[in-house]
Amino acid sequence: xxxxxxxxxxxxxxxxxxxxxxxxxxxxxxxxxxxxxxxxxxxxxxxxxxxxxxxxxxxxxxxxxxxxxxxxxxxxxxxxxxxxxxxxxxxxxxxxxxxxxxxxxxxxxxxxxxxxxxxxxxxxxxxxxxxxxxxxxxxxxxxxxxxxxxxxxxxxxxxx
Length: 160
Description:
8 strands; 4% helix
């Protein structure tokens, strides 16, 4: 039986892990049940897709995507201080349990675009937020196994 190769307009089901290539620290993994991805519509990192093209069911993969082809370098302009009053509840209080270093908050910019910021420093009247992607500034090591490959259904393919 011929196995379908990963190509544009296929849906690949796979197990994977993403590690910091320098430290081998696991940044993300999907090992309990396979994750599905539509290929060929710029929904994933281009280099990640490129490495999967041509693979078939049961093949394994292991490759590094350099930071400039992944989430880019850390942008110092995406790290800045916000007044602690940004986190005030309706009654004017600050929930100290919530406003802590390491916590991530969804926020909107002036144009209504949603961004996720992580508190990296807390001071008396302000916090330093980092809005960089959590994997920015890292070369990424992807490892995994292809579980299945199938043709995408017409309703799964976005109108480009």
